[in-house]
Amino acid sequence: MNPNVFYGKMGVTIKQIAADLKLAISTVSKALSDSHEISPETKARVFEYAERMEYKPNPYASGLKDNRSRNIAVVLPEIADSFFASAIDGIEAAAQTKGYHVMIYLTHEDAQREHAIISELRHRRVDGVLISVVSNSSDIPHLQGLYEHGVPVVFFDRVHTAIDTANVVTNDFDSAYSAASLLIRKGCKRITFLALRGDLNIIKDRTAGYLKAINDHGIDTQLNPVLTCGHQEDETMTLIRQRLTQEDSPDGVICSSEKLTTQTYSVCHRLKISIPEDIKIIGFSHLPIASLLRPSLTTVTQPAFEMGRTAATLLLNALDKKRTILKKESIVLPSMLIERDSTG
User: Fold this and answer.
1) Which of 38-52, 88-102, 168-182 has the weakest average pLDDT?
2) DSSP letter string over 217-247?
3) What is residue 113's three-state secondary structure?
4) What is the C-alpha separation between 65 and 33, in angstroms, rounded?
5) 280-284 and 298-301 beta bridge pairing
6) Measured distance between the N- and C-terminal CA atoms of the chain, rounded to whole angstroms
7) What percent of the chain has pLDDT over 70?
8) 250 near 191, Cβ under 8 Å?
9) Rounded CA gap, 89 and 40, in Å?
10) CA pair distance 271, 252, nearest whole angstrom
11) What's the rounded mean pLDDT across residues 134-144?
12) Are 78 and 132 in contact (CB under 8 A)?
């Protein structure tokens, strides 16, 4: 495939551009690449024509010239969560500006599946990987193996801090602290924090922020426990139901994930527990319909789109500079605590 082929209206190629403008094919190619060898006047003619005819370069063919696939892989635990759906939008927004294709891989919270996907990516033509890791594994050799094959990696949201590369996260400790403090100000005396089972740093940070707020406000930690939930819906719903029907049932709940939030709402509805009169709820959630729920949900909302775009930009900038290893850095974007009716 010719790396100088461009596609526009009616499939016209760069040869046709050259013929129409009475220029050499090499001149048009260099002009479209903004080469310093071509005069500003000629570039203007070519750019005007290309814009009018809606010409775009074929990124795959162009990639053959510099030994790139123009593909980046995005490895996620799921896409049903609205956070990841929005993050993908941000990733694609950044990738499109650079002429890259985005390939989505889902682990479904399965460590073995994550290993298999990473192993596959080591042997496929991808220029870089963006990943949000599974919750039930602390293993990292499969991820370190990407470096051995010259594949740069950027983590976002769910990260492995032991890997020396860039990552994009939110202020999870501070956000959980603020959420707990809000419930305490609203008069809650028996708060339960719903955490996800596993090794995720984001859950550890959110749990630590919650416990710090409880301690700072001088509240009994035994009456304000952390309840660790699994990833199976039936199991989790049973745990939440048991907690909400105990003698010392909570008057406030903080859900560390979107799924736990919707499950808590569902249990309250089935048990006819009134929100926020009987129990106040805050969820770490990016649900677009949070304001439409009944009652509307108070949320800790992550900047999902911006996290995806920032992570992709870090990766793409490294690829532009032909760097396979990114410096270890953590970009922290602030989440927003949005008060709605579920906290009264």
Assistant:
1) 38-52
2) TT--GGGS-EEEE-S-HHHHHHHHHHHHTST
3) helix
4) 13
5) parallel
6) 63
7) 92
8) yes
9) 36
10) 16
11) 81
12) no
Tokens 């990943």 sit on residue = 131
Peptide bond into 295 cis (omega under 30): yes
CB-based contact 300:271 (threshold 8 Å)? no
The span from the CA of 304 to the CA of 286, in Å, is 8
Torsion of CA 78, 72, 133, 338, to 10 degrees: -60
Q: Which residue has the tokens 């009616």?
A: 10
Question: How many CB atoms are closer than 10 A to CB 232?
Answer: 10
Q: Under a CB-based contact definition with an 8 Å cutoff, are residues 253 and 194 in contact?
A: yes
336 contacts 174 by C-beta, under 8 angstroms: no
Query: Residue 65 in contact with residue 1, Cβ under 8 Å?
Result: no
Q: Residues 73, 128: contact at Cβ < 8 Å?
A: yes
The per-type count for the chain, helices as H runs and strands as E runs, is 12, 14
Closest CA relative to residue 299, chosen from 242, 273, 260: 260
DSSP E strands, 47-100: 56-57, 71-76
Q: Which of 232, 253, 242, 266 is nearest to 135 (CA)?
A: 232
Which structure tokens are listed for 234? 């039936």
Q: How high is the pLDDT of residue 196?
A: 93
Residue 67 has a pLDDT of 61
Strands 298-301 and 336-338: antiparallel
Whole-model pTM: value is 0.79
Of 130 and 37, the structure prediction assigns the larger pLDDT to 130
Q: Are 72 and 312 in contact (CB under 8 A)?
A: yes
Q: CA–CA separation, 186 vs 178, rounded Å?
A: 12
Segment 95-102 mean pLDDT:
92
Please provide residue 323's backbone torsions phi and psi, each rounded to the nearest 5 degrees. Answer: -100, 125
With beta carbons less than 8 A apart as the criterion, state whether 114 and 144 touch. Answer: no
Residue 138 has pLDDT above 50, yes or no: yes
Indicate the range of 37-51, 94-108, 205-219, 270-284 predicted with least confidence.
Answer: 37-51
Are residues 112 and 168 in contact, defined by beta-carbon separation less than 8 angstroms? no
Over the chain, what is the mean pLDDT?
Answer: 89
